[in-house]
Amino acid sequence: MEVIIAEGERLAELAADAVEDLLRRKPDAAIGLATGSSPLAVYDELARRHQESGLSFERARGFLLDEYVGLPADHPERYRNVIAAEVGDRVGWPETQISGPDGLADDIAEACAAYERSIAEAGGIDLQLLGIGTDGHIGFNEPGSSLASRTRLKSLTLQTRQDNARFFGDDVDAVPVHCLTQGLGTISAAGHLVLLATGRHKAEAVHQLVEGPVSALWPATIMQFHPHATVLVDEAAASRLQLAGYYRHAYAAKPDWQGL
Ligand code: F6R
């Protein structure tokens, strides 16, 4: 696992570099898309590169990390709509090439299985963008999630619903209780995991993710098993890392040819 400590704008550039390098190498790559605040600066940077240097998503496939259950199709916080507004529409990504688990399906179990099939049919996800919850979730795999889980229904913790109430007019009751999320096993199957975290409120979760024992109590710790995981954090989110000095040293000494 590589930990890079830098200021927010630089983190977004690094994540965008990883996406751009992938698309230049493999124009029809499959990219896993997180919502929430953490990837917003990355999406801004990708939109800028699309405008200014023609970075193309025309052949790329997009796979949402998760989705709320039961939000009406036109609800602005439905993740499918959020991703269209934050990234898809801004980079000319054909709508039909971005999929997500169907939070309005009558048969939720079949919708989750169908989503897993669509990822497999695309040849798997090449690069998965991730944020981390203050309780250590990735996707919406809350504490206690199976470390081998696949896309399924989960109940959000009160903590996560409170954290996300800011997107629902600060009304925690308006945040759905249920979601569909790629499982920890699904996420682990992606070729490259790129996680972004900023702010002191993420410091404990980041410490556990990088340095804690692997445990369902901190679901993001599953990333310690991944052969290619990049953790991009600002100073505040890095403030509890025990080995911060070593991560800084290793990154400063990194050979250019290695890339992310
Ligand atoms: C979003 C998602 C979540 C968020 C996490 C952090 O698709 O899967 O895991 O990444 O809750 O949210 P922010 O970035 O808003 O702090």
TrEMBL record:
Pfam families: Glucosamine_iso. Its EC number is 3.5.99.6. Residues 9-224 form the Glucosamine/galactosamine-6-phosphate isomerase domain. Keywords: Carbohydrate metabolism, Hydrolase. Signal peptide: none annotated. Pathway: Amino-sugar metabolism; N-acetylneuraminate degradation; D-fructose 6-phosphate from N-acetylneuraminate: step 5/5. It catalyses: alpha-D-glucosamine 6-phosphate + H2O = beta-D-fructose 6-phosphate + NH4(+). GO terms for cellular component: cytoplasm. GO terms for biological process: carbohydrate metabolic process; glucosamine catabolic process; N-acetylglucosamine catabolic process; N-acetylneuraminate catabolic process. The active site is at 66 (proton acceptor), 135 (for ring-opening step), 137 (proton acceptor), 142 (for ring-opening step). GO terms for molecular function: glucosamine-6-phosphate deaminase activity; identical protein binding. PANTHER family: GLUCOSAMINE-6-PHOSPHATE ISOMERASE. Belongs to the glucosamine/galactosamine-6-phosphate isomerase family. NagB subfamily. Catalyzes the reversible isomerization-deamination of glucosamine 6-phosphate (GlcN6P) to form fructose 6-phosphate (Fru6P) and ammonium ion. This is Glucosamine-6-phosphate deaminase. It comes from Candidatus Nesterenkonia stercoripullorum.
